[in-house]
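Reviewer 2 asked us to include a model.

Predict the structure of this chain.
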Amino acid sequence: MQPLAGPTLLALWERGLSRHALDRSALLAAAARPDWPADTVVDRPLGAVNASLLRLRAASFGPRIDGHVDCPGCGQRLAFALDTQVLLDGADQDMAAETEVAGLRLRPPSLRDLAAVAAEADAAHGARALLARCTLAGDAARLDEEALARAEAALEQLDPQADLALALQCTDCGHAGNAQLDPGSLLWDELEVRAHALLAEVHRLACAYGWTEEQVLALGPARRACYLAMVAI
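Predicted model (structure tokens):
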């Protein structure tokens, strides 16, 4: 997979600036998987989209993921480190297109499904709405709580990469819980930081030498770093 760099990275950043987070994920997944027709990305199984985003992130910024989450118990900021390959474990296995449970025939969720329920304020209502969208046969609205839990578990088993949850425990108060990892947001945040850094480099070298953005970005990273060091003298 080709890493994001130079003009390609800046073009993606500019295109994604005004988009919703889910639209950005679709944009980045399309860049990660040029073999997918762009208009099909939003309907791909969410696990496949997440895997493509993690692979693009690893190719562009390295396999190690350093992050943090605030403890809901005491507010302490908890740092964590992950290996992308661990998150991708099993991602290349053949996945069933659908499953049956609790009288329902279900397919994996997609970005389009998440977008359709994104405005739902109540998490329980949102979960039922998502399940209804993924139902190919049967009536999800009729499920009691026990059947609903079985259906949700079946969806997770059908597409394990769709919902990446991290088990964390606070070292201060002992609170234990799960934190969600959103590969699209993770990749976008790092892409945005790198885009601003690149634009700062362009600005400094353009001011010093009168070069255009195209000329600056055409320089390899090592040569560009040498020029930047000389400008700083």
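Residues 168 and 177 are 6 Å apart (CA to CA). The chain has a mean pLDDT of 93. We have added this to the supplementary material.
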